Amino acid sequence: MLSYKYTITKIDTPFEFLNGSKVDTTILVTFVDDDGDEIKSKRYGFVTPESVYELIDNNQSINLDEAYIKNFSLHDYRHSRRMDDRAYVNFNTFSAQNAFFDCENRVDFAFAKFTKSFNLKHTVFAKGYINFYKSVFLKEVDFSEVNFGKGEADFHFSEFGNYDTNFKNAIFPSGNISFVNCDFGNGTIDFSSVNFGEGNADFHFSKFGKGLVNFDKSIFGGG
Asked: What is the pLDDT of residues 62-119, one digit of tens each?
């Protein structure tokens, strides 16, 4: 599923996550091709950004596995807490595996500091601009099998520490991707089988340390 369209259906029935927690509302996402034919459908639990912001306030671990979340934005979080626009937001363990991030303009993780593991394996970003500008990852990072949607993905000046960073099988369908001035540290960096789509993939001035760097079977399209 390199490129897709989707429809959202809100269902007023509870959704139970694999960890046993529940939310009141289920979101049915139906993925369709350019001809309008259904590719697949998947159910998610509806989670509001504010409920995540409250977990950040309390320095709690965040688990958004199987969640649907719309318009998540650390810019909005800072504004609501009267923080400086460039103040770092600290996260404990963050997991959003098999999740769906929807947005009207952007999903914003800029100036985030993840002090423990970060896992977005097999998650979908629906559309818009995906912003990880100057994000800091101090432990393991997993973006494997993530579909970044049709928008741009910005990792300018991000730091990935000295632990493993995994983008294996990730998909960037059409937007430009920037890893300009990233510091990938000394861990293993895995970009194997990544599809960089039709946008520009820019690694200008990035730093790779002592660890293995793997671009085996990656696909660079028209950018």
From this structure: 999 999 999 999 999 999 999 999 999 999 999 999 999 999 889 999 999 999 999 9
- For residue 76, the 8-state DSSP code is H
CA distance 59 to 81: 15
**3-state SS record for 121-178:** CCCEECCCEEECCCCEECCCEECCCCECCCCCEECCCCECCCCCEECCCCECCCCCEE
Structure confidence by residue, pLDDT tens digits, 48-67: 999 999 999 999 999 999 99
CB 186 within 8 A of CB 209: yes
Tokens matching residue 129: 């601009």
Q: Which helix (H) or strand (E) holds 5?
A: strand 5-11
- Report how far residue 137's alpha carbon sits from residue 5's, in angstroms, rounded to the nearest whole number: 31
Element spanning 68, H or E: strand 67-70
Cα separation of 39 and 113, whole Å? 36
